[in-house]
Write a structure and sequence with these properties.
This protein has three helices and nine strands, in the order βαββββαββββα. The longest helix has 11 residues. About 25% of the residues are buried.
């Protein structure tokens, strides 16, 4: 079963769950060059014995604005190919700028699996839909690292998937690890892996 919703540590927020952070690097690659990148990743990653693992997900981004101009952003995602799977609710915090020498982006991370009533619940507690999109692509794993190669589409007339329109002529490449707070040694492994993707794509902090 292929979906980008699978989390490396399972749902956060459970009793005794550690405080999690997401360590990430991002880059982009033109559509015309993406096949070469997929070939490189198949040679480097672990989960390729049964062929490429794909995903086709719908993401809705909700915002709650406070009186002091602050806002909270939550991301609701579901699989279009496997509609019976739970929805995923994610919170990504602000980038941690306390250590500017870090070679990767670090931010707090929470996720939870929910029912299909998630959008209604978010509206009921005051969140409003800011934007939505469809993410299609391939998922690779290397140890604890997750690598996503994603094409982003605007959904002109949901639920008709024939109305999807690509936003750009490129794909987003994301390298990430979700781990307990303080796992600083992860950044060295991520940088070493990113070096192996050059010159096809240059991965950098967000």
């Amino acid at each position: 079963m292929s979906t980008s919703l699978q989390g490396p540590l399972g749902p956060a927020g459970a009793p005794g769950a550690p405080n999690l952070q997401e360590y990430t690097l991002q880059g982009t690659i033109l559509d015309l060059s993406s096949d070469a990148l997929l070939h490189r990743l198949r040679a480097l990653c672990d989960n390729v014995d049964q062929g490429l693992e794909g995903f086709n997900d719908h993401e809705m981004v909700y915002v709650l604005r406070g009186q002091t101009n602050n806002q909270v952003t939550l991301r609701a995602r579901r699989s279009l190919d496997h509609p019976s799977l739970p929805w995923q609710l994610r919170y990504l915090g602000q980038t941690d700028l306390s250590d500017k020498s870090r070679s990767v982006t670090v931010r707090s991370y929470l996720d939870s699996l929910t029912t299909e009533t998630l959008p209604m619940f978010l509206n009921d507690i005051g969140f409003r839909l800011d934007h939505e999109f469809v993410a299609r692509g391939n998922l690779f794993r290397k140890g604890k690292m997750k690598i996503l190669v994603t094409k982003i589409y605007r959904w002109a007339k949901p639920p008709d998937q024939q109305s999807l329109e690509p936003l750009t002529a490129s794909k987003l490449v994301e390298l990430s690890v979700v781990a307990p707070s303080g796992s600083e040694n992860i950044s060295d492994d991520m940088r070493a892996f990113a070096e192996q993707l050059k010159p096809l794509v240059t991965m950098d902090k967000v």
